Structure formats: C-alpha cells, structure tokens
Amino acid sequence: MVDENNIKNSFRTVKGDIMQIQGELLNIKQQQVHILEQLEKIYSKLQNSKPKTKVIAKTVTKTPKKKYIASKEGNKFHDQHCPFTKNIKPKTKIIFKSKESALNKEYKPCSCVK
Fold first, then answer.
1. What is the C-alpha to C-alpha distance for residues 113 and 93, in angstroms, rounded to an integer?
2. Which residues does 113 contact at the CB level (< 8 Å), separation at least 6?
3. CA distances from 29 to 18, 19, 20, 34, 43 (A)
4. Which of these, 1, 68, 97, 108, has the minimum number of CB atoms within 10 Å of its CB?
C-alpha cells in the first residue's frame, strides 16, 4: 500500500511551494503599484509643463528675415547691409534667404555675417 507519511510530506511540500509563490506574487504586485504611482507623477508633470518650442517659434517669427548676397564669381557671401555688396554686379549677384543655403553652395561667410 501507499505510505501515508509520504503523501502527507508531499502535500506539505506543495503547500509550502504555493505559499512561497503567493508571497512572491504579492511582492510583484506591490512593485507594480509603486511603478504605476511613479508613472502617474511623471505624467502629471509632463501635462503641467509648457513646451519650450512654442517660445522659440514666437521669437523666430518676430525677427526680420535677413538676406545674404554673394557673387557667382566670388567665394564669400555677405549680409545685405555689407558695403561689399555694392561692388557686386547685378548680372553676377546671387541672393540667399539663409546662411545655411549659402553654406550649402560652398560659399564662405564674410566677417559681416554673424
């Protein structure tokens, strides 16, 4: 026949394993609650903070747009108010809307360009 003590010991072992798993599950649940609380704090901070890009967009729209002028024959570009721009012939004059576009065409900035 089957030994009753072996069966009792098996049930005790299983019961101990189940209790250990329940304790681990409780610990995981507490960690989840803590993580969710931290995420809620972060989310509320993000909701209350103002994006900085709007401020930058406002200042960019208020500044007047500059033009940069270069000669097809030269290798430098100038600010539109630079005295050297008066010497550029109308046939060879190139007008750029930004510094980046002049730099992309491999022109170097004059000392008047800031």
1. 17
2. 68, 77, 78, 79, 99
3. 16, 15, 14, 9, 21
4. 1
